[in-house]
Structure to design on (214 residues):
């Protein structure tokens, strides 16, 4: 990181702290622990960030090349609106399953303590972060500030690197589906649409891709 980058990061942390709605969470702006990340995933009532809600959150810590799955975070979240039959088919969580879940604000606070200042890893992470930020903005005044690492983008970079110079002139469409990516990387699939399983798979892909891209 250049001196200018460090100065910009320091200025950004100061600005976020100054405008923070809940000062007790200022620790998420601390420098990240070296070689540590958090892989996370959310299950939701649908794919519309504006109207849908989180029903479960899963996260695991990554330290170096190790996934600390025994220290995972797994939360059921109680949505304010009902759950459609279509979403139940996907994540298998019924209305009675989420009825005793945590309110979204409380669940996100637990997630912040779990993440700390570690960078975030995920598969199509942008959607999960958008859903979490929807809860965070009224609480903090801003969304998750940690660096975010998208494993499908890492995989795309790897496949592009493997193309010949001629192939790069008109590159083929790259299949970024999770099952395709895991199979190509020689990694085991877990049952999908379980947030901890999805977080672990993203963590496995991240560790493998980090080495393949160096």
């Amino acid at each position: 990181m250049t001196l200018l980058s460090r100065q910009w990061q320091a200025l950004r942390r100061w600005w976020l702290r100054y405008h923070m709605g809940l000062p007790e969470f200022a620790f998420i702006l601390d420098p990240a622990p070296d070689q540590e990340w958090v892989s996370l995933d959310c299950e939701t009532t649908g794919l519309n960030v504006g109207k849908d809600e989180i029903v479960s959150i899963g996260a695991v810590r990554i330290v170096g090349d190790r996934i600390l799955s025994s220290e995972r975070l797994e939360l059921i979240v109680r949505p304010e609106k009902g759950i459609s039959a279509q979403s139940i088919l996907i994540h298998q969580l019924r209305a009675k399953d989420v009825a005793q879940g945590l309110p979204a604000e409380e669940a996100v606070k637990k997630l912040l303590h779990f993440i700390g200042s570690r960078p975030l890893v995920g598969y199509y992470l942008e959607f999960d972060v958008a859903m979490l930020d929807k809860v965070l903005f009224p609480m903090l005044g801003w969304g998750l500030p940690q660096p975010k690492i998208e494993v499908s983008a890492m995989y795309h970079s790897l496949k592009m690197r493997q193309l010949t110079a001629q192939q790069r002139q008109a590159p083929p469409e790259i299949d970024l589906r999770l099952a395709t990516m895991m199979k190509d990387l020689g990694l085991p699939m877990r049952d999908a649409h379980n947030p901890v399983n999805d977080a672990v798979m993203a963590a496995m892909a991240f560790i493998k891709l980090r080495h393949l891209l160096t």
The beta strands are 36-44, 54-63, 66-76, 120-122, 148-150. The chain has a mean pLDDT of 89. The two ends are 17 Å apart (CA to CA). The chain has one domain: 9-213.
